[in-house]
Write a structure and sequence with these properties.
mainly alpha; flat
Length: 99
């Protein structure tokens, strides 16, 4: 009985060691931290896909990260959006109102 118990414990520890070894990435893989620090020499625009230099890409990223200014809309369209917001609010407060 004692031998079987020792054999079972030994096998279970051996299998745990094998499973931990399988979870590790292969040694030839480049770590993600290194890949994130690569220098961009040329890139593509996310807008139209044209090739950009590193300086142009950095400038475009900065421009896209800034909040956009308000766009002038047609007054009829602005009124329609306002009415839709009001309708949504009424439907939230009174769910069975069919407006």
């Amino acid at each position: 009985m004692n031998k079987l118990l020792c054999l079972g414990i030994g096998l279970s520890f051996g299998l745990v060691g094998i499973q931990e070894g399988l979870a590790l990435p292969p040694p030839e893989d480049i770590p993600e931290e290194v890949l994130r620090n690569e220098i961009i020499l040329e890139a593509r625009s996310p807008l139209d896909g044209e090739l950009l230099t590193a300086a142009e890409y950095a400038e475009l990223e900065e421009k896209l990260s800034q909040p956009q200014a308000f766009i002038d809309l047609d007054p009829n369209l602005e009124q329609l959006i306002l009415l839709l917001h009001i309708r949504k609010t009424i439907n939230t407060l009174i769910p069975f109102a069919n407006f």
